[in-house]
Amino acid sequence: MKSAVTSVVRTASRLRPLAHVSTIKAMTTTTKPAASMATAQVAEQTRSEQPFFPDEPFKPRMRTSIPGPESKKAIEDLHKVFDTRSLNMMVNYQNSFGNYIADLDGNVLLDVFAQIASIPVGYSNPTLLAAATSPEMASAIINRPALGSFPQHDWAEILRTGVLKVAPKGLDQVVTAMAGSDANELAYKAAFMWKRRQERGGGDVEFSDEEIASAMNNKAPGSPHMSILSFRSAFHGRLFGSLSTTRSKPVHKLDIPAFDWPQASFPHLRYPLADHVSENAAEEARCLAETEDLIKNFRHPVVAVVVEPVQAEGGDNHATPTFFKGLRDITRRNDVMFIVDEVQTGVGATGRFWAHDHWNMADPPDMVTFSKKAQTAGYYFGNPDLRPNKPYRQFNTWMGDPARAILFRAIIQEIERLNLVESTAQVGEYLYSGLERLAERYPYEIQNLRGKGQGTFLAWDSPTRDDFLKRAKGLGINIGGSGERAVRLRPMLIFQKHHADILLEATEKLVST
Amino acid sequence: MKSAVTSVVRTASRLRPLAHVSTIKAMTTTTKPAASMATAQVAEQTRSEQPFFPDEPFKPRMRTSIPGPESKKAIEDLHKVFDTRSLNMMVNYQNSFGNYIADLDGNVLLDVFAQIASIPVGYSNPTLLAAATSPEMASAIINRPALGSFPQHDWAEILRTGVLKVAPKGLDQVVTAMAGSDANELAYKAAFMWKRRQERGGGDVEFSDEEIASAMNNKAPGSPHMSILSFRSAFHGRLFGSLSTTRSKPVHKLDIPAFDWPQASFPHLRYPLADHVSENAAEEARCLAETEDLIKNFRHPVVAVVVEPVQAEGGDNHATPTFFKGLRDITRRNDVMFIVDEVQTGVGATGRFWAHDHWNMADPPDMVTFSKKAQTAGYYFGNPDLRPNKPYRQFNTWMGDPARAILFRAIIQEIERLNLVESTAQVGEYLYSGLERLAERYPYEIQNLRGKGQGTFLAWDSPTRDDFLKRAKGLGINIGGSGERAVRLRPMLIFQKHHADILLEATEKLVST
Question: Chain B partners of A255 at a C-beta cutoff of 8 Å?
Answer without folding.
Answer: 192-193, 195-197, 215, 222-224
